[in-house]
């Protein structure tokens, strides 16, 4: 839609593509809907053209041509006119995390040449802004200039981030870009604070897996675009997401300021199937919500840092189920008895409530497996009855001796569920005796046989 609008207006009004793009971007900012930009990181022209084709086939709205990734001698100029997508041309200096060791005259000269032959945007490092201005003094303006700042070591404080942003505006940035490193997911809160206060078209993100939420929620908090890769392994910066995954799994183009945010808190978390399951359910039920992975080291620190952003709920996985219990405003009675939670829900009054649904799901699966061995249960599955398949049947764990392997947060829920369902005895096996003995003591304090 963006590309079609741009081409139509260029033809009918005779204005430049960059001028139309900035108008479109400003409209997008007002609507809080971000654009999809694919970074092209190929080393040859042929491979770069193939990556642009991937971007177009996945409905990207822009591409970033990384000249500093191309091998020496490649005819990069031919890429400016290749394909239909608007282009950002970047030739990142090695001193700012890129691959170019060229002199500033040569490196920035390529960006100036890119504008001369039709590039829509160029990306100039804030540190090189003065040099660039000297090189272009007296020349007619072409295209739009992104001034960028990258920090591959840390996330500066909120005040410093605001000062960096202000310097970009002073230096005449058409668009501002700030990319910093999230060493802890709580660092992202500072980035989102500054982003929400931005007055001009702005791209702001946190790099690394811990910063992924800033990329996924760009549309919610006002970033002009999010950078993504053609495929996994072709990233230009840590934490980029493949374009197909961004558009299909996370439905990125539907995320805007009113979209509800849910996520799974864990460490590790990248292996989790929860985003695929929940986002598919949201799509099927036409719910304006997104479910994202959250790599969290300190659950209390994360929840405090993001409390004012009012995420709508979380799933909690290892190793945070016990620690998260102390971080909610209200506890469900069963969760309090178990001593661990796997779900946090934000209530209508803004408070958070913790639940434990592990025991119901896990014990239910065990019960169904045991019931499947019962001929009566099998007969009911095959018969067209309008009653529950297990209705009136004895609980399969009733009177059984249950052996539980593990004594972590999930195991606490299963231990509680087993005895709640009638197990006569429970034996806990664990790598460390102390943790197993602790769980045994807690079960006995609840009056449960263990």
Explain this structure to me?
Keywords: Lyase, Schiff base, Signal. Residues 397-445 form the Quinate/shikimate 5-dehydrogenase/glutamyl-tRNA reductase domain. This protein is an alpha/beta fold. 38% of the residues lie in helices and 19% in strands. It folds into three domains: 2-254, TIM Barrel, CATH 3.20.20.70; 266-356, Rossmann fold, CATH 3.40.50.10860; 385-445, Rossmann fold (3-Layer(aba) Sandwich). The chain has 17 helices and 17 strands. The strands form three sheets. It has a nine-stranded parallel sheet. Strands 11-10-12-14-15-13 form a six-stranded mixed sheet. It has a two-stranded parallel ribbon with strand order 16-17. The radius of gyration is 27 Å and the shape is elongated. Residues 1-15 have low confidence and may be disordered.
């Amino acid at each position: 839609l963006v590309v079609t609008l741009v081409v139509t207006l260029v033809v009918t009004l005779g204005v430049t593509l960059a001028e139309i793009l900035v108008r479109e971007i400003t409209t997008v900012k007002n609507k809080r809907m971000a654009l999809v930009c694919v970074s092209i990181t190929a080393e040859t022209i042929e491979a770069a053209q193939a990556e642009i084709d991937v971007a177009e086939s996945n409905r990207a709205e822009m591409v970033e041509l990384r000249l500093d990734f191309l091998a020496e001698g490649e005819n990069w100029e031919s890429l400016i006119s290749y394909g239909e997508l608007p282009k950002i041309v970047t030739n990142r200096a090695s001193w700012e995390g890129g691959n170019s060791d060229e002199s500033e005259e040569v490196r920035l000269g390529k960006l100036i040449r890119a504008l001369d032959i039709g590039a829509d945007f160029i990306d100039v490092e804030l540190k090189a802004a003065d040099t660039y201005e000297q090189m272009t003094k007296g020349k007619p303006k072409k295209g739009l200039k992104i001034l960028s700042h990258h920090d591959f070591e840390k996330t500066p404080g909120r005040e410093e981030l605001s000062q960096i942003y202000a310097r970009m505006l002073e230096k005449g940035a058409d668009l501002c870009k700030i990319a910093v490193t999230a060493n802890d997911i709580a660092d992202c809160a500072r980035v989102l604070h500054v982003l929400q206060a931005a007055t001009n078209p702005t791209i702001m993100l946190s790099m690394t897996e811990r910063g992924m939420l800033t990329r996924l929620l760009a549309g919610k908090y006002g970033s002009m675009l999010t950078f993504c890769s053609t495929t996994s392994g072709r990233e230009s910066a840590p934490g980029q997401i493949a374009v197909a995954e961004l558009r299909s799994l996370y439905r990125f183009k539907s995320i805007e300021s009113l979209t509800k945010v849910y996520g799974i808190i864990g460490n590790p978390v990248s292996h989790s199937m929860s985003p695929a399951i929940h986002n598919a359910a949201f799509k099927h039920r036409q719910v304006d919500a997104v479910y994202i992975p959250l790599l969290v080291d300190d659950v209390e620190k994360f929840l405090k840092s993001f409390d004012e952003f009012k995420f709508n709920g979380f799933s909690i996985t290892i190793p945070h189920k016990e620690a998260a219990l102390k971080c909610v405003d209200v506890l469900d009675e069963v969760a309090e008895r178990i001593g661990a939670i796997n779900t946090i829900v934000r209530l209508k009054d803004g408070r958070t409530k913790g639940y434990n649904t592990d025991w119901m799901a896990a014990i239910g699966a065990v019960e169904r497996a045991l019931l499947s061995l019962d001929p009566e249960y099998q007969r009911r599955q095959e018969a067209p009855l309008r009653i529950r398949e297990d209705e009136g049947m004895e609980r399969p764990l009733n009177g059984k001796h249950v052996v539980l392997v593990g004594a972590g947060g999930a195991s606490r829920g299963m231990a509680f569920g087993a005895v709640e369902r009638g197990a006569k005895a429970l034996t806990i096996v664990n790598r460390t005796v102390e943790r197993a003995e602790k769980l045994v003591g807690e079960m006995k304090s609840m009056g449960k046989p263990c």
